[in-house]
Amino acid sequence: MASVTLESLPVELIEEIVAWLDFHDHCALRLTKRTISVKSSNAAFRKYFLSKKLEIAEAPLEQFVGVTQPGRFGLWVQDLTLYTSIALHTEEVPPVSPRVLELLAQGFANMHNNSPHDELLSITLKVFGNGYLGALTDRVFQVTMSALKNSGLPIRSLDAFAGGYSHTYGGRCSFPFGEIPAVFGGSTADLTRLAAAFQPCKKIGLSLAHHIHKIDFLRPRESPLRPEDDFELPPSYEEARENTRSLAHLLSLCPNLEELHLVWEYDEFDETAGVREELYFFNRVVESCQFQGLKKCTLCDTRMSEATLMTFFRQLTRLVHLDLRLIHVDGHFDGLFRLLSTAMPELSYLRLQYLYSSSGTIYFPREPRDNAARSPLRRSAQRLIRRGVNARRPVITRIR
């Protein structure tokens, strides 16, 4: 009777065995023999490569290009976090190396051309470190968008600093509006590939801030500088209008969008025409984009007109999840509250927090304080969190 060896076992049994091993033991097993390597390199091993973090630097990106060659396990990555660290840089941040742009684009092209599966890639952009994280967000965003434009790699989602940050002073992380128009530069082929990358996108999250720049004494601005604005200027109206148009264009590339997460990070500039155009960016987005398939929506620190509010939410009949925080409306919320209970039959999660109308601050005096119970009474009355069928119960408010 022939002896039973590990390599003679069926693939299914070997997968059961390696499921009990940690990653390093699994790697060691694969090195013992080619037959064992092949049999132990199926689903159980691939799971280690589904989610990865990749630093935007030459050495890690060179490795990324290597592991996305045909037959390599980098092709199985489905959730990719692209990051840089503010702790690695001095105040004078060096420009992005052309080699970095080339390597990320090549890695994306490898994934696009060599993928052994049909799962699309989800991309998350991060900056790690302490202090003002927004100092490096523009380059992470531009490197990523350049790579998508050059490769045409289809993506399932893009989170550009929207999730995982407090978005408050001292811990802010957003990219300036002025980075978006640059995305649409390039040849017709570049823009065709960019559209192809976003066409299947189901989820997009963006953390936005004003496009601000250093003083230019040769160009007049809309209002004189305040004494505390010695080094930065807000956008002109023409700049701001181009920025909001480009944002709407970017979102319009996602006809299959199911989840939208938009965050605004506030700057204390005088409200010039340019500043107001960017503050009310959501008005332009709703004018230009259709979101009938949206199921989840999160808006934070967003300003809009009442007409925009109603135009946007009237089309969201399939909405399941709604999270509105720090929303300022020129007008009233009454129409929205009626829609929530009458026109959104699938709504199962509702969070309303710090809403401000033309008549004053919105309070929810009859809501149980549940998970807001530890907050002061004044603040907890400004927050409402509901789940399940309770999310569609009529919203009762008081205005102060």
UniProtKB/TrEMBL annotation:
Coiled coil: none annotated. Pfam families: F-box (PF00646). Gene3D superfamilies: Ribonuclease Inhibitor. InterPro entries: F-box_dom (IPR001810), LRR_dom_sf (IPR032675). Residues 3-48 form the F-box domain. It comes from the Eukaryota. This is F-box domain-containing protein.
